[in-house]
TrEMBL record:
PANTHER family: GNAT FAMILY N-ACETYLTRANSFERASE (PTHR13947), LD18367P (PTHR13947:SF37). This is GNAT family N-acetyltransferase. GO terms for molecular function: N-acetyltransferase activity. Keywords: Transferase. It comes from Planococcus donghaensis. InterPro entries: Acyl_CoA_acyltransferase, GNAT_dom, NAT_camello-type. SUPFAM superfamilies: Acyl-CoA N-acyltransferases (Nat).
Length: 166
């Protein structure tokens, strides 16, 4: 497996790969939650300065991807949010390549980059329905920071926050 930086011309491939990876959650989510998730999967936010996108390649196929948002006062994660530490977003592994270490390798790559950059921690957020991802993050040493959890639509879906201290 090769972990490498995504090439600019691969943007459409990555959007498709993410959609396939996350489509497994469509049945678990309300139409409103699914529409919000879908729009974030195809968003251009990860094309802005201060965001690096990495892919996992097996053979010639892209089987996983992740976006690493830099800790930078000029990198806006959302309209009003400024990142104070790097953040992992949009981790996506194609269903037939799950449980093969692809997600772990992508997260480890982001941690390694953050270590090199002398960051103190790295953060991520994930939906409560993404149980396999939560298990992975906890096995890797990420700690749940419940004070940063939120419910985007004030219903039973919670977005959980995690931090890994470097």
């Amino acid at each position: 497996m090769l972990i490498r930086e995504a090439k600019r011309y691969e943007v459409h491939l990555l959007k498709e790969q993410r959609f396939i990876a996350y489509k497994t959650f469509k049945e678990e989510l309300s139409p409103t939650h699914w529409d919000r998730l879908k729009s974030s999967l195809v968003s251009a936010h990860n094309l802005q300065p201060g965001v690096e996108v990495f892919v996992a390649e097996i053979g010639w196929d892209i089987v996983g991807s992740v976006a690493l948002y830099h800790a930078n006062p000029n990198t806006y994660a959302a309209d009003s949010e400024i990142l104070t530490s790097p953040e992992i977003r949009l981790l996506a592994v194609t269903p037939e390549f799950r449980s093969r270490g692809v997600g772990k390798a992508l997260v480890e790559h982001c941690i390694d980059i953050s270590k090199i950059r002398k960051q103190q921690s790295i953060k991520l957020q994930t939906g409560c329905y993404m149980k396999n991802a939560i298990d992975l993050y906890e096995k890797m040493g990420f700690k749940h920071i419940s004070s940063l959890d939120f419910k985007p639509l004030n219903d039973d879906i919670t977005i959980k926050a995690f931090r890994f201290d470097i």
